[in-house]
Amino acid sequence: MIRVLLADDQSLVRAGFRALLDAQPDIEVAAEAADGEEAVRAVRELRPDVVLMDIRMPLLDGLAATRRVTGDEALRDVKVVMLTTFELDEYVFEAIRSGASGFLVKDTEPEELLRAVRAVVAGDALLSPGVTRRLIAEFAARSKEPAAAGRLAGLTEREREVMALVGIGLSNDEIARRLVVSPLTAKTHVSRTMVKLGARDRAQLVVLAYESGLVRPGWLG
What does the alpha-carbon distance between residue 30 and residue 51 come to, in Å, rounded to a whole number? Predict the structure, then answer.
């Protein structure tokens, strides 16, 4: 059973999400929170699998709340998906850097929301359809000069290659086709790379790919 925490200051939004999620045989809503402070307390107490976190909330906004959750080693297994009204919300970029596993617009289709919850539990980064490449492009445009790539020293050449492909937004299936390997092999390479670098998920792997200079702006294709 996948346990979800709903964090949104609008009770109507929470009620709609709860009705959808609780109707699924493999998902249950563990708790609700109306502000960021309450959300962080609930996460620490209940250790849900996924937090659906609104970006704009009183007392503590969703971005700050996400940093507290993802910065706590004891909560490493908790995945955060940011909720936003607009696909290009100015905070989404920083949310991904802060450890969120992705984001969804609030008016996303019900099936997409369910897929999102299941996807992040499986360890996949999740972004609304059509947003992945735009977000990566935005990250590339805002990135500072690459930091020293020393942290990649422990990666094999194939793992560096796979990391670069993750960095430009390719899925496991797309990586498998590009490298002419099985999807399972591609997934294994991605998983090993994340473990070696201490990345929570694919979203952080994208961040590291840019920050290390392994992927540079203009490589999207």
Answer: 10
pTM, full prediction: 0.70
CA-based angle 92:98:103, to the nearest 5?
35
Strand partners, 51: 5, 80
Q: Which of left, alpha, beta for 115 (phi over 0: left; psi -120 to 50: alpha)?
A: alpha
Q: Rounded to the nearest 10 degrees, what angle do helices 202-211 and 183-197 cross at?
A: 70
Tokens 């792997």 belong to 205
Q: Is the dihedral of CA 15, 24, 101, 128 positive or negative?
A: negative
Pairing of strands 126-127, 79-84: unpaired
Nearest to 102 by CA among 41, 197, 194, 87: 87
In sequence order, the 6+-apart residues with CB closer than 8 A to the CB of 35 are 7, 9, 57, 58, 59, 60
Residue 192 vs residues 44, 145, 163, 167, 178: alpha-carbon distances, Å:
28, 26, 10, 15, 19
Mean pLDDT value across residues 77-95: 74
What are the residues whose beta carbons fall under 8 Å from the beta carbon of 195, sequence distance 6 or more? Answer: none
Residue 94 Cα distances to 2, 41, 85, angstroms: 26, 22, 16
Strand, helix or coil for residue 129: coil
Calculate the alpha carbon distances from 49 to 34, 80, 118, 121, 167 in Å: 19, 9, 10, 7, 25
pLDDT tens by residue, 88-97: 556 666 777 7
